Amino acid sequence: DLAFTTREREALYLKGLLPPCIRTQDMQVELAMTNIRLQKDDLGKYMFLRELQDHNKRLFYRVLQLYTSELMPIVYTPGVGAACQKYSMLFKRPRGLFITVHDAGRVPSILANWPEPDVKAIVVTDGERILGLGDLGANGMGIPVGKMALYSAIGGIPPELTLPVCIDVGTNNEALLNDPYYIGLKQRRVTGSEYNHLIDEFMEAVVKRWGRQTLIQFEDFANNNAFRLLERYKTRYCVFNDDIQGTASVAVAGIMASLKITGTKITQHTFLFQGAGEAALGTADLLVMAMEQEGLSTEDARNRIWLLDSQGLVTMSRMGRNDKHKMQFAKQAADTKNLEEIVDLVKPSCIIGVSAVSGAFTPTILKKVASYHKRPIVFALSNPTSKAECTAEEAYKHTDGQCVFASGSPFDPVAHNGKTFHPGQGNNAYIFPGVALAVMACGVNEIRDEVFLVAAKALADLVTKQDCDEGRVYPHLDQINETSLRLAAKVAQWFYTEGYATHRPEPEDKYLFLKGKQYDATYDGSSFNKHINGKSSWSSANPSFTR
What we know:
Strand content: 5-15%
Structural class: alpha/beta
Organism: Medioppia subpectinata
CATH topology of the domain at 248-428: Rossmann fold
CATH architecture of the domain at 248-428: 3-Layer(aba) Sandwich
Keywords: Metal-binding, Oxidoreductase
Strand order of the largest sheet: 8-7-6-9-10-11-14
Distance between the termini: 27 Å
Largest sheet: 7 strands, mixed
Pfam family, one: Malic_M
InterPro entries: Aminoacid_DH-like_N_sf, Malic_enzyme_CS, Malic_N_dom, Malic_N_dom_sf, Malic_NAD-bd, Malic_OxRdtase, NAD(P)-bd_dom_sf
Oligomer: single chain
CATH superfamily of the domain at 248-428: NAD(P)-binding Rossmann-like Domain
Number of helices: 26
GO molecular function: malate dehydrogenase (decarboxylating) (NADP+) activity; metal ion binding; NAD binding
């Protein structure tokens, strides 16, 4: 763009093709933000950023890095949810790979079409459960695209090493099947062995093309496939599921930070989940691990966790043997769907909403929880904002400002009884970019469940007294780049201590080691020159990153 110098314009034969004005990248960033703020709505802002990403990659990432807290709700939840709902209508230029069920047997050749020779991180979805919006089919590609942008903007992972993927096996969304502009397959979802063979072929093709240490993040698969695929692949590939493990990590981090405010221990709490899907069960499992490390037995830890699904309280009488994930938390109790009755029975000190049922935490529920505990923890984590179990204002109002609150999507500060609360956003972006950075830099072959407890503790440790005084249980979003790097350093240390890192020699200072590998989005950044010259820090230190 206009940042080319006079000398560069001469050398690259750009004289006359550009106006004479020369702008610095800082000026371009300022102008981009001015244009973004002129957009009438979040969807307009999303489209401006997508076009910027297509036109000037380095400027796009620089803008994201400098204005993360302002732009996060646009490129990620809740803005990306609205974009996914209209993805086909908005579609201009493809980004990422689309693999369909009709490509079975030819997946390796499709991966070979990707122009970048060395991919080291993939986010893949089949679009069946996009946020709290349901089956969006190929329109769900907006999620991997958004997540990969945050890999680079927050985690500092070079964007050319990342790849968004949509595996299109059809959709059961009638509106999409009848939409003449829908970009995906117009057929009902394929299931069973045909589906399984396609996913197997994809996983095998990735390793064959880019190596065993290629990180694969599963995103927004339906519950029945999410758990099954994670169990199937987690010891055979470098894989994790962000909806199960990433959400669990950020939720547990928020709970651990809440303990600084409540002055309690995690083993003193009783947890009630509104919802019993991927996020709930992943969080429940990680809470059990955290309580075990504090001395509780597995059985005692599970007894402190209660689940409520769409059919009511998860009880022994309801659970079949096929539902092993819920079964371990089932209770000997009367069957009921009434949340008020359940709150009276359980008397939870922490209620966690992950059901995408808007308004589930009614004023009565919030008042009841506050009557049982002086400082209840209320997490309304469902996305997007329209699906939140309660708003921040409702939570503070109906607990008389006593609750510790966090949400999945952002809420504005709330004034109550002369105090202003700044509600924390339990955003997975606090977790997955840092974990990915550590995994890739350390040459890890397998991502253990314990990694996400290490990440949760690292994130909670970064919550300051000032954060707590303001009602935050997460560091301010303006600090998320530094937060991600410090979290990654803690995770990297764990990889080396536990013997999962293959990169040698072991770096003495993990923070500086990781910082030296991060993507520099400035035009004259050192990493830019290294990439141009084929001397990326990702390739020189580890054979697995050879380009």
